[in-house]
Each structure stands twice: as C-alpha cells, then as structure tokens.
Amino acid sequence: MNANRERNSFFSREVRPSSGPDLRDRYDSDQLVHDENNILIDQMGRNVTAMKMLSESIHLDIQESNKLITEMDGSFLQVNSLVGSALSKFSKIEEFGGTRQMCYVVMII
Fold it and tell me: Does the reported pTM lie above 0.70?
C-alpha cells in the first residue's frame, strides 16, 4: 500500500477505483481529451490545406519564372548572334577597307 502511495505521488496522479462516480469523471475526462484532439486534428487539417495551396501557388510562380527565363535565354542568344555578326563585319571592314570605310561606319553610328 505504501508503494502505491509513493508511485502515485511520483507520477502526481492518484489511482482511483473503477466504480461509481469516479468512473463517470474518468469518462468525462476522456471525452474532453477526445474533443480537444478532434479540434486539434481539424486545425491541423486546415493548416495542411493552407500549406498545400501555398505550395501550389509557389509551383505555378516557379513554372512562370522558368518560362520567362527560357524566353530571355532565347532572346539573349539572338542578340549575341546579331552582335557577333556585326562585330565580324566591322573587323572585316577594318581589315580590308582601311580608314576611309571606317570613317563611313563611324558617321553611320
């Protein structure tokens, strides 16, 4: 009996017999815990839904950004090609044309 009392004081919970009004108190306590768990489960479900919507929104933003980056990459490749072509023509003019043609090019620019 003394060991039970020490055990109960250690766990700070008194062991009650399972009969009479104590059984009703335990049922009410279990029901409160069950109800609280249901509330927390509902909150968790709403949080999961919100996180799912947020992740879908982020996914769509990333897809749109990747599409824009791909388009920009194509545009930069075209500009790079045009600039490279123009520079090669200028170097040919400089190489074969002399100063007279370079003066024309400078005046055009």
Answer: no
